[in-house]
Each structure stands twice: as structure tokens, then as C-alpha cells.
Amino acid sequence: MQTLYPAIEPFRTFFLDTESQHQVYVEQSGNPHGIPVLFLHGGPCSGTKPKHRCFFDPELYHIILFDQRGCGQSLPFGDLEDNTTQDLIDDMERIRHRLNIKQWVLFSGSWGSTLALLYAQQHTQQVAGLIVRGVFLAREHDLAWFIHSSGVSNIYPEAYQALLDSLPQHNIDYLYTTLWGEDEIAVRRVTKAWMHWSSQVALGNLFKIEEMPEHITEHMVLQVKMELHFAKNHYFIQENQILENCSNLQAIPTHIIHGRQDLVCPIESATRLKAMLPQATYSILPNSAHIAQGAEMIDALVRASQKMAEDFIHE
Questions:
Q1: Angle at which helices 184-203 and 218-232 pack, to 10 degrees?
Q2: pTM attached to this predicted model
Q3: What's the pLDDT tens digit per position in 71-93?
Q4: Residue 198 catalytic?
Q5: What is the three-class DSSP state of 105?
Q6: Domains and CATH numbers, the chain
Q7: Residue 315 clears pLDDT 80, i.e. is over it
Q8: Which of 309, 314, 315 is closest to 131 using CA atoms?
Q9: Catalytic residue, candidates 41, 113, 262, 283
Q10: pLDDT of residue 314
Q11: 41, 196, 258, 290: which one is catalytic?
Q12: Cα dihedral value 70, 71, 77, 79, nearest 10
């Protein structure tokens, strides 16, 4: 089994000018003359972490991490203005130009996989390879599975009921209006319930309600608003846009990795993507869920990055 590479520190960090109020945090580590790889974090609301550098051999890869607009160390935190999917794709291009990179590998998971596929469809010639984990296609079907009563709510009914109980009339249709409402107590109540719900689905049996924060901070409110800002705007893309625009991705070396126990992004999404990208390698991990943790998942991701590097070296 492959494991993460040892921890390393960036050799450079900077804030990217986006021609807007947003300043995007970018860091570089590994070999500055190596294979450029861009790590795309999930969410939309998360951010990069030091361990994300460790999926790649630092002698072979020029490892680039960035926090998407309003996330992580990017400034201002939680700002939703000028924060759309296309804005994030444009930021990726700004980073590529800033670092004078001709082509790079995209390493992505969950919402990051959405961005990777959309970017590759717009900037095909700039993508040397794709490693896609936990495929999220951002369809209405995918959102309904996670939010509405006919999906994963049937697997975790207690946590879903707690989410409903935080809303007026116990109705999920009030989710957005309550979170963006003026009742501060209600805003924090639904933020806490949403964090409970999403953590339960993502972590499964690893979830421990006693580890959930008792006090809801403004930072937590902004983070949840960031996630649902994209959801309520249908992720700023057309329905089924990703699957319908896979024709120009056929020549890109692609690894699709998905946990069979993933309840955030059910495996149907990865299977549909594989059908549109028959050249891709497809690894179904029987014991893995959504998060990029656990020996099986880490082994698959590190092996994919190693295989991608080997293919580049032998070209």
C-alpha cells in the first residue's frame, strides 16, 4: 500500500491579483522544474491543507495549491460577490499564466472534480492529465440527492430531521431564505444543523456528534453560505453541462477514483463520467467513502499520481 509522502513546506507563497476584490492564496512546493500539478480542493467552501502537498512525489512534481475565492487563506474570507464557477476557472488560468506553465496536471476531488472537468473542457490544450476523485457532476439530480427528502436523507434520517427542525415549518424549501435572513439566531441555528448534516453524510461512521462545535462562529456561517451560494445558483452551469461536453477530453490521460461507499457523490456519477471517457482508468474502491482519507483511498490517489509521473517521464 502506498502512503502519503513526508510533509514538506512551500518554497513560495503569494496572493494572486484577480482584477477584483478577491486576493487568491497560492503556494508552490516540491520541484520547481518538475511536472506542474494543480490541487483543486472541495467544498465549495473548503480550502487547502498542508497534507494536500503529500499526494505527490516532491522530487518529480511542481506542486501548486490554491484556496478558491473566499476560502481558506484567500481574502476576503466568505465574500460571495464576483464568486462564480467561471471566476474560479479564470483564476486557474491566471495562476497558470503567472507561473508561466504551458500544461499541468489537475488533481481534484468532489467539488474540485467539477472545476477540473469544466476547466479542462474550456482549456483542453493546457491540461496534461486529470486525476478525478469523488466525481461531482453538479446536476439537479446530485443536489436533490443531498438536500431533499428522497435521497441520502433516507440513510441518515435523524440528522436530516434535525436539519428540518432548524427551519420554519420544518421545510427544506426554507433553507436558503433562512440562512440569508435577518434573524441571527435562526441563521446560526441552521448553520449548526447544516454542519451536522453534511458532516454526517461525508464522514459516515467516522462522524462523532460530540466533536461538533457548540458555539457557531461568524466564520462558520460564512463557510456554509459559501457552500450553499453555489448550490442555490445551480453551480453557475447548465444542467448536465459536464457530461454533454466530454468530447474534447478524450485525448487527456485521466484517472477516475471513487469510493463505493461515497454518500455525498454516489458512484453513479463516476460511472456516467467513465462512460463518456472510455479511455480513462476507473478505480472503484470498495471500502472508501467521500473523504480522501483511509489507507485504500490514499493508496489509490498516490498510485495515480505516480502513474501520471511515470507516463510523463517515458513520453
A1: 70
A2: 0.97
A3: 999 999 999 999 999 999 999 99
A4: no
A5: strand
A6: 12-137+237-313 (3.40.50.1820), 141-235 (no CATH)
A7: no
A8: 309
A9: 262
A10: 75
A11: 290
A12: 20
Reading across the β-sheet that carries 23-30, which strands appear in turn? 12-17, 23-30, 61-66, 35-40, 104-109, 127-133, 254-259, 281-285
Residue 288: active-site member? no
Sign of the CA dihedral running 268, 273, 279, 285: negative
- Helix/strand/coil (H, E, C) string of 119-168? HHHHCHHHEEEEEEECCCCCCHHHHHHHHCCCCHHHCCHHHHHHHHHCCH
**Chain mean pLDDT for the chain:** 97
C-beta neighbour count of 102 within 10 angstroms: 9
Instruction: Check residue 312 and give its pLDDT.
Output: 86
Residue of 29, 110, 166, 269 with catalytic role? 110
CA distances from 181 to 166, 178, 184, 248, 252 (A): 13, 5, 8, 43, 45
Contact 277, 305 (CB under 8 A): no
Active site residue 283: no
